[in-house]
Design goal:
Elements lengths: L4 H14 L1 H12 L3 H28 L2 E3 L8 E3 L7 E4 L7 H13 L5 E5 L5 H12 L7 E5 L2 H10 L17 E3 L5 H7 L5 E3 L4 H14 L22 H6 L2
Parallel strand pairs: 3-4, 4-5, 6-7
Antiparallel strand pairs: 1-2
Helix pairs in contact: 1-3, 1-5, 2-3, 3-4, 7-8
Length: about 250
């Protein structure tokens, strides 16, 4: 018998909350971001899980809900059952792997959908930890399966497998540039746009760039676990920052 959706998601959220510091440290080590940022990501993961736990309570309440019929000698109930196996291909996101993974699986776990999730070969350790937690709180074996590998090795076979449900849902990315006008505090904006694209009014473009460079030189670049770290390490030697800079 499948466990209660509500109890399953609440237990899953409780485990993440209990192991927040442990998971945050692993996330910082795995993807190079500062420990403070990693712990903030865990707050997002917990919030996402709590949201779906509330939805699960609604689903539990609707299971075997009676349907009113005009004939007294008939009884009708609503029974919600899982759909077919779903293949999830998580984005190659080097900075927020845990958030991307958890938000992808949380809504499907509460529905007991069979999942085969492909994740890239970088920074997947916390994702495997979350999968372990799912098993610990009662998700039946085989419901969630994590496949690590490159696209042609893992993603393509999952996408083309005959047992995978074929409707497609896509999350498309983008940089969403911030537009900077003349009447803003350039120091504050320089810090808040440091990790995003920005467009500036021509009259302040040079000054804005100077403030941005000044802020970037002032931050602490160190081991992600060191106190005060704002910029940690890259994920792998293959992540060539200089090549990326030359494209911009």
């Amino acid at each position: 018998m499948l466990p209660s959706l509500k109890l399953l998601e609440r237990a899953y959220t409780g485990q993440i909350t209990e192991k927040k510091n442990e998971l945050g440290k692993l996330e910082a080590i795995d993807c190079g971001k500062s420990l403070d940022e990693a712990l903030a990501d865990l707050d997002d993961v917990i919030g996402c899980s709590n949201y779906y736990a509330e939805l699960a309570e609604g689903l539990d309440a609707k299971q075997k809900a009676p349907v009113s019929l005009p004939m007294a000698n008939f009884k009708s109930y609503v029974l919600k059952e899982p759909i077919e196996v779903v293949a999830l291909i998580t984005p190659c996101h080097l900075h927020w792997p845990l958030c991307m993974f958890s938000s992808t699986i949380a809504n499907l776990i509460i529905c007991h959908v069979g999942l085969s999730c492909w994740h890239v070969i970088y920074n997947f350790k916390t994702c495997l930890e979350l999968a372990e937690l799912c098993g610990e709180v009662g998700l039946p074996p085989g419901v969630l399966n994590i496949v690590i590998g490159l696209g042609h090795e893992a993603g393509a076979p999952l996408a083309s497998h005959p047992d995978v449900d074929k409707p497609v849902s896509l999350e498309l990315g983008g940089k969403s540039p911030i537009i900077v006008f003349e009447d803003v505090d350039l120091d504050k904006i320089a810090e808040s746009t440091a990790l995003a694209a920005s467009l500036q009014i021509e009259s302040i473009a040079t000054e804005f760039l100077n403030r941005l460079v000044k802020w970037a030189k002032s931050i602490k670049i160190s081991d992600p676990l060191e106190e005060g770290c704002r910029l940690g390490t890259t994920v792998s030697e293959g992540q060539d920052i200089m090549d990326y800079q030359s494209m911009n």
